[in-house]
Write a structure and sequence with these properties.
The protein has ten helices and ten strands. It is an alpha/beta fold. Strand 6 (147-150), helix 6 and strand 7 (178-181) form a beta-alpha-beta unit.
Amino acid sequence: MTVCASRIPIFALVLGLLAATPLPARAVPPGGHGAATDAGVVSVAVAADFIHTLQDLDAAFIRTGDGRLLISAGSTGKLYAQIRAGAPYDVLLAADSATPRLLVRQGLGVAASRFTYARGRLALWSRSPQRVDNTGLVLRYGKFRHLAIADPKIAPYGAAARAVLRHLGLWRTLQPRIVRGEDIGQTFQFAVSGNAGLAFVALAQLKDPAFTAGGSYWIVPQRLYAPIDQQAVLLERARHDAAAVAFMKFLHSPAARAIIRRYGYGVD
């Protein structure tokens, strides 16, 4: 039986929940309203793997003078549910292509705006420097108590991790040792805290300039899982919002693409 996240130490849970909780990228200036409808403020719902990249993009976007971002992060599935429930987001940066496509079909996204802003890469990581080999054999022969993955039902990186384990014939074998994070941010924190000896994470999390934990990792070959095409879509409520439209245009710019590439994402 799969180990539930609730059975790991409370400290890891607290860290994980903090990582998964929507939060603004920057504080609203004194006297500002901070609402998604404020002129120049773009409310962006973003998959957890991309939050630090988006914060760098926010700084660059501010320099254009076209606006600034209010960022909420979580699993793509959770953000989709919030949008369906009426959450006042202007833009969704998903960790898949299916969710933006679905929003367009449901009349909640602007069809012409949908595009792939990044291609995600999956990595197996441990904070122990010598634990992960360069072929992933640690999954089969290594000694570890817990393997953390994002919930495959709501997190595209979790679905990719499940595909890898199935491809390797280890999905059923490792079930007793798997712990599930709500999103890739919480999953990463399980491994950072040491409560999971191994974790399937986004390569971007390891490429983050602020990441200093070191450790060892294996970049999972693309042939083991379907491409993680991460798509953006302008939500219908912001179709005529100048700042939101400007931000979507900015994501296509060489400056934005250079930032995204720096975090280890593929950019077509």
